[in-house]
Specification:
Number of helices of chain B: 22
Radius of gyration of chain C: 19 Å
Oligomer: heterotrimer
Shape of chain C: globular
Distance between the termini of chain B: 40 Å
Number of strands of chain C: 7
Strand order of the largest sheet of chain B: 10-7-6-18-29
Strand content of chain C: 5-15%
Helix content of chain B: 25-40%
CATH architecture of one domain in chain B: 3-Layer(bba) Sandwich
Number of helices of chain C: 13
Largest sheet of chain C: 4 strands, parallel
Structural class of chain C: alpha/beta
CATH topology of the largest domain in chain C: Rossmann fold
Largest sheet of chain B: 5 strands, parallel
Number of strands of chain B: 38
CATH superfamily of one domain in chain B: FAD/NAD(P)-binding domain
Strand content of chain B: 15-25%
CATH class of one domain in chain B: Alpha Beta
CATH class of the largest domain in chain C: Alpha Beta
Distance between the termini of chain C: 33 Å
CATH topology of one domain in chain B: FAD/NAD(P)-binding domain
Number of domains of chain C: 2
Largest interface: A-C, 63 and 63 residues
Chains: A mainly alpha, B alpha/beta, C alpha/beta
Structural class of chain B: alpha/beta
CATH architecture of the largest domain in chain C: 3-Layer(aba) Sandwich
Chain lengths: 178, 768, 287
């Protein structure tokens, strides 16, 4: 990677060869191909479910990743707009996976200690303490009558028998690298 | 036996970078019976001169070993060189490039393996005996399969040279896909105007025998003497009486979608194939004709003024005797149903369908219209790479679509001046002569080029086509409503191409197109002598390139058939009458009927023998040998490899698929562990159970057998024969309490370098 | 002969969309599927892919291990769960590194044995491939007679590399089931459009906009109702249908059913038995 010989003149940033190599390595562990194979046909962006409303451009993320400008992606809000519909991965003619490249980079964002956007904090809390994203809710039917699992005759939900071990396993994985 | 000369090639640094040539020289020179030399490029004139000089200066040398690249490349050059001084077979090659230096990056290990391979070759060559030649008769007729532009051109070239050519065509008319086109790039001439005179020439050439409605169903024989069975479907029309007036077509009550016009309009059960077809004779589609299926109607017979209708015609079979075969069976467009392209919608069409609309005599009279309702489109969009360059469909680029779409966009612009024309592309590939200039003239038109691809083609509730596409150039997400969408559909091998591959046992790639012997320097040869390929059967290409192929194939065919007879080497089987007990197992096993009984003795018919060695593996008395790979040679090669490097897996490999796959792993630099040492055989059918177990007796860590896949064996059923022996050998290993997992049987295709790499890695891991 | 299968509902069906669970428990036994409830289970990890992929894989793996220990195949009525489970199973089968990491932790910390050999089904392929159209046809007593649009949802058909219940382009199994139930269904351009559910975590308004646009497209196509196979999708298109309409400024009214609710109606079950009172869309408008 031509780190020192290339500079982005708009913001004076340079490609990060280490981050690029690490990205390629982590993707390979997951069985995902090297983003450099992308030949920029933009089919992913044409079909991206988050493009129209939120202006996410998966092909542009791939181009930045390929060129080593990964910090930009890390700091961008756009990657959190990805819906995870997998259309880009499914239709890519070159077996690329912008959605999963974004998952990995979002993971990096989180593991750097920054606060979780949106409801993610709540969801993670729910999982660690209850085993599910939330406790079973009371719901209203069309006539505004209130129902819960017991009233409906549904069995109680089953959670991890040993919540401590479960939570411990999860927390340990928070610090492990792919 | 005197001394052996060993020549080591550096091949620039292709070999020398990972194989220590100096060390090899040192080690080998320790053996006083070897004279070891090295050269930068042995295949060069200087290199060959060195070989000749060495042989001249050392009259005590009577055999040679060459350690260099794969025999596939220069075996003939070295053979021609050596045979100027010694018998043409008193030498052996060791492949230390594709199967060594290119796939092992550790210099020590690569050198160790190279040494073992070279010693293996030396061990083998010590048992070589001179092999002579024999003169055999060839049949100078030639078969060309497929009468498209490539097939027709090849036929004319050969016919002009004086050869009698059988031109076999599946359809009722010759001409192929080129007759369907409007104009051709980069000259914009009318396609039919270019191809029509060629069709007429073919039809009237005294040396060309045209067989339409015909298909090759069986072949047998050998190069120079092939027997081909052709099935001829009945036309149900007498070609000598039919005048091509078309009255039958007018009156026929049965309408069917026109296959020639790709479903854009209808034709009748009896029809003239197309305007200016050759021969210009009607044909009946038997499965929809009322008379032929239900014995009703019969109108065409009643109205034909020439009395040409003959319902009682029957299919015929003809046996042709030819010396060479050229396969030019062409391409078709891939099927895009059930994809994101919404091809089900009538206004989403392929490139060929647009060509039919452009042609003035086509189904729309030369007008560009929306097939759904016949209206003139206000917006036309070309979408490139539909199915090509796409790992979900076809990985390859279909070569001609950029150019033909550029051509057609210009034509559409001229035909509909007010229309909006868009083209969604990834790249525009214009690599040929005058192509870039052609592309420039295209850009002078008002055609919107969109640098991006849509994800899917949608339609509104009232059936209007639209799609979203991101244009990288303007950074805009565009929604485009298009009346007509033209997909540059990927090309794939035609049914005929796939069938011929099966019937002639031709090699083909992962993309199913036919494989040439060498992509660059033998582009029309195949791995089978006497069979050549031309045109799009070999891969998507332009008309120019198809014509070039055709001329080359014609030249190649003419070369092997230039005289009435040809001389062949006696690399065939030979029977020792002293050992032969006349059990007859060899006669039963031989697929080529190459063993016969002459008086009291069993003998081999050299001109029929392929030298595959299947008979050798069958003979219970060891009475047959193939001259170019005797049992002694084979065992000596295994012995020498294992002596040099006991940590070896002996890989018996067919010299076609298996060896090629190993070479492809080499050219692609796919690394695998150096324990694997290849021992080349003409066919794995040569292996007896004893041969398979022999390396284990000598301490090998494993034995692999690389065979061509069942059904694709070049000697028909060598793979099955070998598999049987392999199973038996496995049982014996188990009985002896040995690890049968160390013996492996792998079926592999030529292009599968990846599989070769994987199985070598697997066995290396297993034995460690 | 009843086929026993481990029922893995996932978070959304277990904690909110109870109607779908009711219909599954009501309908499957009638079609020869015996549902076995699993102990010790948890979320599959799909909601936290963006947070930590290892956590997600661990969570999917533990649920697979739990079901395997019972000797059963798995039925996940939620496609997000189904994808997470299938993907994890595939990844752990192809990467020794990942497998070791996850499987050792499962054993050491939770005493779970992971093999990764069971089959994982979803409602679409369980009904189409295992139960079969013929068996369903046998059971139909009250043919539906309505025009039902099929919404497979992103994760039911993508990504096809790991094997999905139906194909990615022009999936057809749900339409075939609807037709077998007596209803009518056909392909439409917006069939593969995303409902926006996962966006609720970070971009609620955009999520509801997508839901609204999807519903509007189905309504404009002239369908009487919508059949879904994802509890999360149902949460958006049924429970939040009104909100979605408000977000895009349209009055939306479209009956939205989970597929087994429709199957239940056709084989003669009562609406309450199928939890249809809990559907907030106008499901009672269709008779």
């Amino acid at each position: 990677m031509s780190e020192n010989s290339t500079t982005d003149l708009f913001n004076m940033s340079k490609p990060d060869g280490e981050k690029y190599n690490e990205l390629v390595r982590q993707l390979a562990v997951l069985g995902i191909k090297n983003p450099s194979i992308c030949f920029q046909c933009a089919k992913c962006t044409s079909g991206c479910e988050a493009m129209k409303l939120l202006e996410l451009q998966p092909h542009s993320i791939m181009a930045s990743a390929k060129s080593g400008f990964i910090d930009e992606i890390l700091e961008s809000d756009l990657i959190w707009a990805c819906v995870g519909c997998y259309k880009c991965k499914e239709r890519c003619p070159q077996e690329m996976s912008p959605v999963e490249v974004m998952f990995v980079i979002k993971n990096w964002y989180v593991s750097s200690g920054k606060s979780l956007p949106g409801d993610y904090q709540k969801i993670l809390q729910g999982i660690i303490t209850k085993g599910y994203i939330q406790d079973p809710l009371e719901v209203l039917d069309r006539e505004n009558k209130s129902w819960n699992r017991d009233l409906l005759g549904l069995p109680q939900i089953k959670r991890p028998k040993d919540m401590k071990s479960f939570a411990s396993a999860i927390s340990q994985l928070a610090t492990e690298k792919l | 036996m005197d001394k052996i000369a060993v020549f080591l090639c550096h091949c620039g640094d292709n070999i020398a970078a990972t194989v220590d040539i100096k060390k090899l020289k040192e080690e080998l020179s320790k053996d006083g019976d070897l004279l070891v030399k090295d050269h930068m490029f042995l295949c060069s004139e200087a290199g060959q001169q060195m070989i000749l000089d060495t042989l001249d200066e050392n009259k005590g040398i009577d055999r040679v070993v060459i350690a260099s690249c794969s025999p596939k490349h220069h075996w003939n050059i070295f053979k021609d060189c050596i045979k100027q001084r010694l018998n043409a077979y008193m030498w052996e090659m060791a492949n230390i490039r594709e199967q060594c230096s290119w796939v092992h990056s550790n210099k020590e290990e690569a050198t160790k393996k190279a040494l073992a391979l070279i010693r293996g070759a030396i061990g083998k060559v010590k048992h070589h005996k001179p092999i002579g030649t024999i003169e055999i008769h060839v049949n100078r007729n030639i078969l060309v399969v497929g009468a498209g532009i490539a097939g027709m051109h090849a036929s004319l070239e050969l016919a002009d040279k004086g050869f009698h050519v059988y031109l076999v065509e599946k359809e009722a008319s010759i001409g192929g896909n080129m007759t369907r086109l409007g104009r051709t790039f980069p000259t914009d001439d009318c396609s039919m105007c270019t191809v029509s005179p060629i069709m007429n020439k073919v039809n009237s050439h005294p040396n060309i025998e045209l067989l339409t409605l015909s298909e090759v169903v069986e072949t047998s024989g050998r190069p120079g003497d092939y027997k081909v069975v052709v099935e001829i479907r009945p036309r149900y029309v007498n070609p000598d009486k039919c005048t091509g007036c078309g009255l039958c077509t007018e009156k026929c009550p049965i309408s069917i979608p026109s296959k020639y016009n790709l479903g854009l309009d209808k034709t009748k059960a009896i029809h003239i194939p197309f305007d200016s077809c050759v021969p210009n004779i009607a044909v009946i589609e038997s499965d929809v004709c009322l008379k032929l299926t239900k014995n009703r109607c019969g109108i065409c017979e009643k109205v034909c003024p020439a009395g040409a209708i003959e319902y009682d015609q029957k299919p015929q079979r003809r046996e042709l005797n030819v010396g060479a075969i050229i396969v030019a069976t062409g391409y078709k467009q891939m099927d895009l149903y059930n994809t994101e392209y919404n091809y089900e919608h009538p206004d989403v069409i392929t490139g060929l369908e647009l060509e039919r609309m452009i042609v003035p005599s086509g189904p729309t009279g030369g007008k560009i219209v929306c097939p759904s309702d016949g209206r003139v489109p206000k917006t036309v969009t070309f979408i490139q790479c539909a199915g090509s360059r796409d790992r979900r469909y076809k990985e390859y680029c279909s070569n001609i679509c950029c150019m033909y779409s550029v051509k057609n966009a210009k034509i559409v612009r001229a035909k509909i001046p007010g229309a909006t024309i868009n083209m969604c592309y990834i790249d525009i590939r214009a690599p040929g002569r005058r192509y870039e200039e052609y592309y420039k003239t295209f850009r002078e038109n008002d055609i919107k080029m969109i640098m991006g691809r849509p994800s899917e083609i949608m339609e509104t509730p009232d059936g209007k086509l639209y799609f979203d596409v991101f244009d990288k150039a303007t950074n805009k997400l565009l929604r485009i409503y298009s009346d007509l969408i033209v997909l540059a559909t990927a090309l794939e091998p035609s049914e005929g191409t796939r069938k011929m591959a099966e019937i002639l046992h031709l090699q083909y790639g992962m993309d199913k197109f036919l494989s040439p012997l060498h992509v660059k320097i033998a582009p029309v040869d195949t791995t089978t002598e006497g069979i050549y390929i031309a045109g799009t059967a070999e891969g998507p290409k332009s008309i120019q390139d198809s014509i070039t192929d055709a001329g080359t194939a014609a030249s190649r065919a003419a070369t092997i058939l230039k005289d009435d007879s040809t001389t062949i080497d006696l690399t065939t089987a030979v029977i020792d009458p002293a050992r032969c007990t006349k059990c007859g197992l060899c006669i039963e096993a031989c697929n080529y009927h190459a063993i016969s009984i002459e008086g009291e003795d069993y003998t081999v018919i050299d001109m029929a023998c392929k030298g595959c060695g299947k008979c050798v593996s069958i003979c219970p008395e060891g009475a047959i040998e193939i001259r170019h790979l005797t049992g002694a040679q084979l065992r000596a090669q295994v012995d020498s490899i294992l002596e040099s490097d006991p940590d070896s897996v002996i890989a018996y490999t067919t010299e076609t698929c298996g060896y090629n796959a190993a070479d492809i792993a080499g050219t692609s630099r796919m690394e695998y562990p150096p324990v694997v040492k290849i021992v080349k055989l003409p066919c794995v059918g040569r292996l007896s159970v004893a041969d398979i177990l022999y390396p284990f007796e000598k301490g090998a860590k494993g034995v692999m057998i690389f065979a061509c896949p069942e059904g694709l064996c070049h000697y028909i059923d060598g793979t099955e024969a070998a598999k049987e022996k392999y199973e038996k050998a496995k049982e014996i290993l188990k009985e002896k309490g040995m690890d049968a997992e160390r013996l492996r049987f792998i079926e592999i295709l030529t292009p599968d370098g990846q599989k070769f790499q994987k199985v070598c890695k697997d066995i290396a891991e297993y034995i460690c | 002969m009843m086929k026993k299968i481990g029922l893995y509902l996932g978070c959304v069906a277990s904690t909110e969309q109870y109607g779908y669970e009711l219909s599954i428990r009501e309908v499957m036994p009638e079609l020869g599927i015996e549902l076995v409830d699993l102990d010790n289970i948890s979320c599959c990890g799909a909601p936290i892919r963006s947070i930590n992929l290892l956590m997600q894989m661990y969570m999917s793996a533990r649920n697979i291990a739990i079901c395997e220990e019972r000797g059963l195949d798995m039925y996940a009525p939620c496609p997000q769960c189904h994808l997470s489970l299938t993907e994890t199973k595939n990844r752990l089968n192809s990467s020794k590194e990942l497998r070791e990491k996850i499987v050792t932790k499962l054993k050491e910390l939770e005493g779970l044995e992971y093999k990764g050999e069971l089959k994982i089904y979803h409602t679409v392929d369980l009904l189409y491939d295992i139960v079969g159209i013929d068996k369903i046809k046998e059971k139909v007593k009250k043919p539906l007679k309505w025009n039902i649009a099929c919404h497979y949802g992103c994760h039911t058909v993508r990504y096809s590399d790991v094997g999905r219940p139906d194909r990615a382009e022009h999936p057809y199994k749900m339409e075939e089931i609807i037709k077998t139930l007596g209803g009518n269904s056909w392909d439409y351009s917006e069939k593969l459009n995303c409902c926006g559910a996962p966006l609720m975590t970070t971009h609620k308004e955009s999520a509801l906009t997508k839901t609204g646009e999807k519903l509007k497209a189905v309504i404009d196509r002239g369908f009487d109702g919508l059949s879904i196979v994802c509890p999360y999708g149902g949460r958006m298109m049924d429970s939040k249908q009104e909100k979605a309409g408000n977000t895009i400024g349209e009055e939306l009214s479209l009956p939205v059913f989970y597929l087994t609710q429709l199957v239940g109606l056709a084989i003669g079950k009562k609406p309450k038995e199928l939890g249809l009172n809990l559907n907030l869309s106008a499901v009672n408008a269709l008779r």
